[in-house]
Amino acid sequence: MNAPGTEEVARAADLQRSAAAPGETSDETLYEVRRKIYPRSVTGAFSSWRVWLVILTQLIYYGTPWLQWNGRQAVLFDLGERKFYIFGLVLWPQDVIYLAVLLVISALALFLFTAIAGRLFCGYACPQTVYTEIFMWIERRVEGDRIARIRLDGDPWSLRKVRIKATKHFLWVLIALWTGFTFIGYFAPIRELGGEVLALSLGPWQAFWMLFYAFATWGNAGFMREQVCKYMCPYARFQSVMVDRDTYVVTYDVGRGEPRGSRSRKTDHRQAGLGDCVNCSICVQVCPTGIDIRDGLQYECIGCGACIDACNQVMDKMDYPRGLIRYTSENAMRKALSAAASRKRLLRPRVVIYSVVWVALLAGFMASIMLRTPLKVDIIRDRGALGREVDGRWIENVYRLQLINTTEAPMQIRVRADSDELKGLTVEYDKQAESLAPTSNRLLPIRVRVPIEAATQGTHKINVTVTSAGTEEGHAEIRQSTSFIVPRDL
Questions:
Q1: Cβ pair 487, 386 in contact under 8 A
Q2: What's the pTM?
Q3: Buried-most residue among 215, 257, 357, 416 (CB within 10 A)?
Q4: How many whole angstroms separate alpha carbon 342 and alpha carbon 140?
C-alpha cells in the first residue's frame, strides 16, 4: 500500500500542469511568473487555533463599532471634531503622544513574539492572513477542495464554471463591502452610516474609502494572497534580525525524516534504509505560500503550522511518532534537546530586554492614561496689546485661555493669577463662561490687572492657575507661567 496522498499528488500535479496555461492561472508580476497556489484543507491543533483567532479578530473588528457607551458609539475616531472616543477615554490632537507610545508598544510586542516563536502574528492575526483564510474557506465551500479547484480552473469555460465562479466572487464582494463599511464605521457613527448607505446618500469621501478598502480586501485576499507576504510586506525581510538559534520556528527534522521515500504501511522503513518522511508532499499542498518546509526555514514561511497538522495526520496513518515537522528551535534540533530543555533556552538576554522594556512602557502608558488630568489649558498672549493703562489705576494685559474638557461631564472652572514680582494681581473674565460643556473646548479671554502703583516697568513672570470642579475625575488644578508686560512710557 502506498503512502497516503501519493496517487492524489500525481493526479494533482497533472491537473496543475494543465491548469497553468497562459492567461489562466499564471500571472505576470514584477518579480517572477506566478504559479497559482491551491492550498489543501487541513485539520488539527494549529488549524483550530487559526479558526478561533479568525473568529475572535473578526468579532472584535466587526462588532466594536456597534457598541454603545454613554449614549454614543464606544469607539469612534471623529476626524471632523478632532476627537477620538475609546470607551470612557476621549483623546484630543494634543494627546498624539499616546498614539506614538502605543505604536512603540505594539512594535516591541512584535519583536518580543518574533524572538520567542517567529512569525506568530503573520500566521494567526495578520489581517492579510485572516481575510485570506476567510476567502479560502468560501472558495472551498463553493468550488471544492484542492483537486476540485485545480480541475475547475483547467476546464474550459461553461455555464457551470461561470455560475460557480460568479457565486464565489459574489460572496467575496459581500464580505469585502461589509469590511469596507465597518472600516468607515470607525470614523463616522456607524448607525447613521448604515442609514446613509441604504438611502444611497453617502458623502463622496465616505463612498471612496469604503469602496477602496473593499477593493483592497477583495484583491489582496482573493487574488494576491501569498504575493503580499512575499513581496509587499517588509516584515518577512527583516525578521531574520529578530530570531536566533533558540527561536521556536516551524522545523522539519532532517535527521529523522531523511532519506525520504514512499513505502507501504507494513514496510519496516528502518531496514529499508528510509527515514520517517514518506515523501507524500502533503506538507507542500497545505502551505498557503507554496513552500516546501523540508528545504529548511524560508522567509516566505508565515509560521501558520498547517504543515505540522498535515504531517501529523500522515504520521498517525503510518503509525509513526508525531513531530516530524514541529515547532522547535535550531539548537534543540541540532543538539537533540528535550522539549523542556529547549523551552528553558527561550529566556535569553534579548527576550528579557524586550520583555522588561515592553512591560515598563505598557505600565507607564496605563499609568499616564489613568492619571491624566481632565482639564487641558494653554495660555495665548494677545499680541495686539502688550500692555495698557486702564482708568489711570491699572496696568492690564490680555490673554486667551484655550480650555479643553477631556471628560464627558460638565465642568466648572475658576481662574486666578499670582506673582512673586507683582502684588495685587486680579483676573477679569466673563463669569458666565465658567461652565465648560462635556468634551468641549473654548477660548476664554481674560484680563490680568495690577495696580499702577505696584507696577514696575519691564517684563514680569506671573502664574495663571485654572481650577476645575464637577467632573467624575474630581478636582483638577492647572498652573502655567506667562509674562506680564508693564510699558516703559508710563
A1: yes
A2: 0.81
A3: 257
A4: 38
